[in-house]
Amino acid sequence: MKAPDFAYARPASLDAALALLAEHGEDAVPLAGGQSLVTALNMRLSAPGLLVDLNAIPELAGVSEDEGVVRIGAMTRHRDVGTAALVRERLPLLAAALPHIAHPAIRNRGTIGGSVALADPATEWPACCLAAGATIVVRGPGTERRIAADAFFLGLYTTALEPGEIVTAIEFPVPGDGAVWGFEELSRRHGDYALVGLAATGRRSAVGLSDLRLAFFGVADRPVLARAAAAAIEAGDLTGAQAALADELDPPDDPATRAATRLHLARVVLGRVAGRMRDGTVKEETSHGA
Amino acid sequence: MAPESPDRAHAVAFTLNGEAVRAHVPARMHLGDLLRESFGLTGVHLGCEHGVCGACTILVDGRAVRACLMLGVQADGATVETVEGLTESGRIRDLQDAFHTRNALQCGYCTPGMLVTATELLNDADAATSREEIRAAIAGNYCRCTGYHAIVDAIAATAEARRDGPKNSRREAAE
Questions:
Q1: Are B99 and A69 spatial neighbours (Cβ–Cβ below 8 Å)?
Q2: Contacts of residue A99 in chain B, CB cutoff 8 Å?
Q3: Which residue in chain A has the smallest CA separation from B132?
Q4: Closest chain A residue by Cα to residue B47
Q5: Is A118 inside a domain boundary?
Q6: Distance from CA of B4 to the nearest CA of A (A)
């Protein structure tokens, strides 16, 4: 189908974009990579009066490191996030997640900030933000807020963003000594949304895993930190961790994939990821599925 | 109207298949429709118009993107290449020959998108081109006829020939 009629503006600065969003209120929608928004427009699921295109604002894109924090500009394309030398070195979890995000042509255009602001519960970046303890930096008219990922994702396509605010950057703490990570995603076909996915970070020592953060996606209305499961694994009880997921996750139930199936798959994924993190065999995956 | 100010249509100027072009584009028109309807580039095939099928894949600033998921007004200032530009320049002659030789198309609807996606993969010096990686690269391009094997064969053969050839056949063809 074809998109409904709307007006379009492409401001050249963040302040100009925020001014337009403030002036037009709920009628205005920011346009990042457009890989979900333009789809919604073409399918007439969305009918904004004005699109405020963020693609001509240079300060919103790029990856940098300062005092133990890697800052990724919101308009950095998926591909540029996952292939940046700084990200591959400092945040290998993000590099491992990249091949699971849709397809090359989508990764070339979609942005990490757009993905985080959309908060689709079956997507990779929100879970990675949660696992890595990221901070979402947002700007509204005249104000900047810094929101922990733990407090940012509130529900289905729902975040802590207020009207008129946009995500400007995501800040990731650089993992310290002994840091390990894990990532696994199951989908029916490569590039599909996840049936179940898990992004995880933690610390590994001679006595086992600690500081575990297990961020599941595709198994609730938002990415979920499985705290009880993490505590059980830190205590060396994988079976207990897998059992704990029944209370921590709320998988959607649809005819193609029953909730019970997703819960089972979440337990399988947890077993694999926790095993690799415990054994120190995590590596960047280039294959998909299995 | 300058692009900084809201309007329902904007003037754009961009490079299309090597030529500087201009157009006045309704904001709601996606880039695929702009290329087809204003410039007659009907090699930009529209399948699903929501980013799933890959038939409309083109190169924007050297990267494969979905023409249906970019707005025409967003082409302003960009370098856009469609399958017409890629093929008429001779740059992917070897890839086209491989598709022909291996019978890597039947109805042909997906072929422009397949060629553009393969062009990006083959241009990426870092991309390894095992069959597995080729399959991952074209996973976003649907073909309902071939079963994909012949397409993977064609791309793999081109990758191998470019790697092993006495000269870089792609560069040679472009000169």
A1: no
A2: 136
A3: A287
A4: A1
A5: yes
A6: 4
